[in-house]
Automatic annotation (TrEMBL):
Annotated protein name in UniProt: RagB/SusD family nutrient uptake outer membrane protein
Organism lineage string: Bacteria, Pseudomonadati, Bacteroidota, Sphingobacteriia, Sphingobacteriales
Start and end residues of each SusD-like N-terminal domain: 107-234
Pfam families found in the cross-reference section: SusD-like_3, SusD_RagB
Keyword Ion transport (UniProt): no
Origin species: Olivibacter oleidegradans
Keywords noted in UniProt: Cell outer membrane, Membrane, Signal
Claim: Membrane is one of the keywords in the record: yes
Compartments, as annotated in UniProt: Cell outer membrane
UniProt xrefs under InterPro entries: SusD-like_N (IPR033985), SusD_RagB_dom (IPR012944), TPR-like_helical_dom_sf (IPR011990)
Amino acid sequence: MKRTITYIVITAFGLIASCKRDFLERDPYGVLDETDYFKTDGAGLKLVTGCYQPMQDGWGYTVNKVAIGDESVDNADAGGSDPGDRPQTTEVGRGRPLSSNPLLFETWSNRYRGIGRCNIALDALKRERSNLVENGAPLPSEALARYFAEIKFLRAWYYFDLITVFKEVPLLVAVEDPSTRKGKASIEELRNQLYIDLDEAIAEPNFPRSSELPDNETGRATKDAAYTLKARAALFFAGLMEQGKMEGDALGEYLIAKEMAGEVVNNGQLQLLPDFQDLFRGDYQVGPFSKECIFGVLRKFDPAFGLAGDPFAIMNVGRNNVGGWGGNTPTRDLAAAYDPADPRKMFTIISHNDIFKTSSGGEEIHNYRGYFNDYNLQQSRKAFVPQAYRQQNDLQRSNWQPYWIRYSEVLLIYAEAIIRTGGNHAEALNYLNEVRHRAYVTTSKVDEPAIYRLFATGLKAIDEATFASRYAIKTSDDILQAIKKERRFELALEGFRLYDLIRWGEYANTMKAFHQKYGFADKGRDASENSWPFPIPQIEIDRSNGVLVQNSNY
């Protein structure tokens, strides 16, 4: 027995000793080093696609952006099953959130994930440009140039999201060592970098206009998206400058907004859809592919490719028999602000007891009682996908998608910038009334998938003469105030309201008045001039070992 064991051990040792190098040192299967990866077909485009990924995060981006932009102010409440369901959103809405607030941390981490991906992609594309392949051939220089422009736009987009919430944040424009800790850049430094990225994207001849984008590229950024983001940012910076919250020339910023928006209006070959309903009917077969949609990350439910619908479309829909989770409940204040003759009210807000058709031809009566909506008794129509447009009546099995830039916003930016720069009031009215004309004259007065809509009651066809006399804004009106109201009516529940209130210097007064009038969930109770910028997440300050300093108002 001992001899047998010895023989086996010796034999095994001999085999090991006699093995050749190519047996023991084979390269692992299924593993590519970085250089080899960039030689694979389409590697460059995959890098670009990765920069969009944080925007595809339904919870971290879509739900988060509208919660910050609308549910924290007077357009909507957090909703949910009960007061303890979404306390992070309710807390921001009260006006004095803690630095441990999960909604703010989610904003910070998601946007910096996007910025990090953009920095990695820019670095890799510069370094590996000679190795990149597309369709079996070297990547054309034109395509590479487009990639650079697209990524710079996205980096600016993520930074502007952070600026509107926190004001001043660390500025990262290159791949950093993970151990690097940075303090906050000034708002002026952030503005300069944001404009550098957008200007370089705009100047790139291979960055297409929205009108040139084929349907199979819907959702990709364009030159018009960059123009609009710069115009949007310029309005924000101008407002902060007027309030003494940053250094700079407010008039100069308004001129930038006018120039950028004017370029889109005059040369973008874009237009409004005649019927507002086509944007939010729920089928998403028209709006995302129209000349009105300038930027919106396309979503599609397709299990064959592992694609799930956006959770926004179940989170922000009524509970009970409707099947949603009851978030994003439009306020009484928002509903009361609309003119009863404006059909956008119906296509923005669903009321308790409204009735929609089911996929089997029956009735779905919306019951909004018994959860954290008993006060408002309203849900978002912009979030709701009726049964006819879902698979298996599942709210997440749909093609719901957000619109992050619509042409109607550009028209309103242009009108405001014209007024702010002392321009021709009649010209500004043309753009403002173009948005209102679509709403009152050409938008349907019937919600097609519905059987009964409370806010459809009394809606009537409005002819041109009636619009001109009763509903068009006139030179004798307070045009700036009319533009402010129009932005709320047109863009409600799409994530814009906080941005507007902050830049207009109206956040504190609006929210204090809201609390005094309604008082629901103590919204606006602690609102003051020191509420914004919101606090930097404490966990980020701790990770920085004190290099990152909390905002002075917290």
